[in-house]
Amino acid sequence: MGGCFRERSMAGPVHYEVYIRKTAPAPWALQMATEDRAHAIETAEDLLRDDRAAAVRVTKETLDPDTMEFNSVTVLTKGAPEVKRKRLVPEDEAGPRCGGPQDLYTPMARELMGRVLEDWLQRQGVTTFELLHRPDLAERLDASGVELQHAIQKVAVPESQAVGQPVHDLVRHYQKLSEQTIERLVTAGRKGRFPSLENHSLADLAHRLSGQAERGFIMAGIIVGALKGIRGNRARLDKLMDMADRAPMDGAPRAMVMVPIEQLLCEMLGTRTSLAEVLGPSLDQGASLAAVVRMVAPREVDLLVAQDTRMSLLIPVVDGPAARLGARLEAGEFPLLSAALARMVLRELMSPRRLRPADAAGEIDILRALAMTLTATAGRLLTLEEVQTAFNERSKALVTADFVAAYVKPCESVQCEAEALTRLCENVTGVANKRSAARWLSACITSLRFETEMREPQAQAALHKLALLANMQRAIRACGLSERDEEDIGNAFGVVGGSVETEGKAIAALLRSPAPVPQKLSALLRLAAGETAPLGPVAERAKAEALRLFRMPDARAALAAQPEALGPLKGLMKAAGLAA
To answer: In terms of domain of life, where is this protein from (predicted)?
Structure first.
């Protein structure tokens, strides 16, 4: 209507249109069109003030002479906000997401069932996959009544909002669907379609089921039934590995056995409690994740442990059924389980949960070990980008005030704090996290407390303090900080070193010592090169004193008498930036 009005009434290339909504939910309707901007805005204001509209809008319409189409720009919008209409659901998305019993066996449906029935499944000590393949469990859930009804409601309410179907209709649908599923499973059990492995060979059953319509359902029921009565996930895993050993050697019969075993394993090892039971309840979260990586990639981890024996103290040994599973994962079996476990490790790394809540320094140790092991497996289980993203996210937790306070709490001196924060700078990843860690370190070494402690005469000798500062300054260069942060922190170490040398008169004491000239020059050049003192004022003073000593006739004579001492001195002179 607006377009027709413009074509009939508007002669100019620009005009203004006034739209109104009489009520908040009502659609916009064209009220008038004019070439006068002020008149359009005034009319809109009057309509709103006189309560003739709940909301008004003025648009500027410009005619494009090439396309002869109008371009619209909103000039004014006032009044009640527009009510968002409920999303229209396409026909192919409308209705329940699960139409028949078979739909409940898909991975997404099993995951949802695991969430809404989590408490009941934990009390029974089983997984969703077992519930869908064990008649006794289905009857037990059906008899509970309230548990099943609550689970159906948990599914129906959010699905109603998503697909636009009444909650009551969905509740009735899922009640009927659950009844059909339970009836199908119970009937199969009564007819003896799930034979016991006590009287049959697993391989023989797999060969006999080949070609049957519901072979996957029946084989899953057989495998699940073999776990009945076995308590504890470690014992259950051992039983599953026994069944994997007895599976057919190849072909479709082997896949018929290995697929349900893998689906069971994915659900069994998908929770923290189950995983802790399999790997060992004494392991904290960080050690559990390291053990999972070792189980998924034993060859890569063993190579790292062989290169660095300290890794053996951080990464637990995987034994028993977990080791049996690890051998199969290394051989390329259960690829879905390998991927699921690797992704679980990434999720835990990106979560806010501490890896070692009572040991901040130990958390950095285990995080470093995990970084090395996951990087070694990058390309096979995870991409390098995924690993880097996970550690960047975890590093955010390492530079928070709470973590840093816990990390430096055991330090009895500010020097210890500076060394700990230097290590923190080295181990965090990500530009922003590196910058945050650098700020913590910079605040530490520029504090009055740090300088006061380093200048205390009761502490170590001045030369020893200078060597400590030089070590920390060199360590900063290996932390991968930004150029500016590295320069600022390095200069701060240099300034503190200058104060320490001035207070202790280390260079003057060195020059007064009765040591031979080559030894004095060697000590001065090491100071000037940043080996035994931080670069900065101390290095410059040492360089000046070394040059002055070189020019003294007595020193030249002493060096001429010991030509073998000139070789090492030339290397030090080059390192100190002096011409040989």
So the answer is: Bacteria
Yes or no: say if 337 and 269 are a contact pair by the CB < 8 Å rule: yes
3-class DSSP state for residue 199?
A: coil
Question: How far from chain centre, in Å, is Cα 577?
Answer: 45
Residue with the two structure tokens 């309509």:
47
Q: How open is the CA angle 446-484-433, to the nearest 5 degrees?
A: 80
How wide is the angle at C-alpha 428 spanned by C-alphas 423 and 431, nearest 5°? 125
Q: Are 493 and 469 in contact (CB under 8 A)?
A: yes
Is the sign of the CA dihedral 44, 45, 51, 57 positive or negative?
Answer: positive
240 and 256 inside one domain: yes
Q: What tokens were used for 387?
A: 């690993």
Mean pLDDT for all residues in the chain: 85
113 in the same domain as 210: yes
For residues 138 and 55, state if they share a domain. no
Judge whether residue 380 has pLDDT over 60: yes
Query: Strand ranges (DSSP E) for 432-541?
Result: none
C-beta pairs of 512-519 under 8 Å, 24+ apart in sequence:
516/558, 516/562, 517/549, 517/554, 517/555, 517/558, 517/559, 518/558, 518/559, 518/562, 518/565, 518/569
Phi, psi of 25 (to 5 degrees): -80, -10
Handedness of CA 278, 282, 284, 287 (dihedral sign): negative
Cα-to-chain-centroid distance, residue 68: 53
Q: Find the helix or strand (DSSP H, E) in which 565 lies.
A: none
Helices (H) and strands (E) in the chain, counts: 31, 4
Q: Which amino acid is at 66?
A: D
Query: Does residue 91 contact residue 117 with C-beta atoms inside 8 Å?
Result: no
In a domain, 443, yes or no: yes
What total number of domains does the chain contain?
Answer: 4
211-221 tens-digit pLDDT: 888 899 999 99
Element (H, E) at 158: helix 146-163
Q: Which domain holds residue 366?
A: 272-398
Nearest to 218 by CA among 256, 183, 252: 256
Lookup: tokens for 195: 């034979």
Average pLDDT over residues 86-112: 72
Grouping H, G, I as helix, E, B as strand and the rest as coil, residue 536 is coil
Torsion on CA atoms 158, 159, 165, 167, rounded to nearest 10: -50
Answer whether 113's CB lies under 8 Å from 137's CB. no
Cβ-contact 315, 305 below 8 angstroms? yes
Query: Would you say residue 294 lies in a domain?
Result: yes
**From 58-72, 134-148, 378-392, 521-535, the region with the lowest mean pLDDT:** 58-72
**571 within some domain:** no
Which residue among 471, 504, 537 closes a domain?
A: 504
Structure tokens at 22: 């009489």
Same domain, 425 and 394: no
C-alpha–C-alpha distance, residues 284 and 268, integer Å: 19
